[in-house]
Known about the structure:
It contains twelve helices and eight strands. The protein is of the alpha/beta class.
Amino acid sequence: xxxxxxxxxxxxxxxxxxxxxxxxxxxxxxxxCASSCDYPRVAGDPALAxxxxxxxxLLGSGFSDRPDDFDYAVDSHARTxxxxxxxxxPGPVDLYGHSMGGAVAIxxxxxxxAKVRRLVLSEPxxxxxxxxxxxxxxxxxxxxxxxxxxxxxxxxxxxxGNDVWAASLLVSAxxxxxxxxxxxxxxxxxxxxxxxxxxxxxxxxxFGEQSLPQADAGALPAHGIAVGLVPAAGHAMAxxxxxxxxxxxxxxxx
Length: 254
């Protein structure tokens, strides 16, 4: 595992850097997750063999630091991913972001511009309002969520079979999960959808087959954004069909 000291903070971002060729592919995970948990099986799939891949844990998640003075908003996470991309060298990078990580990847790509060769997203947050989990978290007061809501959510998620996410959530800092959820509900300015539409690099949005129908699957191609499908999977596609996600990434990055 590698470690990046972030300028202007005492925090360090940690990531796996898997050796390989071509533009590094940076993985950005969703709310309550960690790339060190979600993506080793995806990165190890034969479909991505030989490619350099960087599995980044956002601040507050996985193995990265949990600074008390960080706001954990999407734009702030995006600045840390942009710093990571710049630290990898002068050449281009590819970005992949899932769910909240999709919003982070969009904001990072907006900041990085031509340094991003390809942008791939899976079921990203594009509009204000968040999803079911983020809305539920943000509906609480931060103090209440930190005191008991975080552990209660992990316990209820595990009880309904979502045990991997529950375990990953428990490793995340409660304050980071709360502030990330609140940022998703508030949305971006301009919106992450508007930012995505304005980006110039080739862009692909992936959907899990079990998540369909979704309006964006039909609407995004009209804006020059490719759409891909991960079979036999829903939103949690990295766990449900890691080989299918790897194959979809391979096609999007070709």
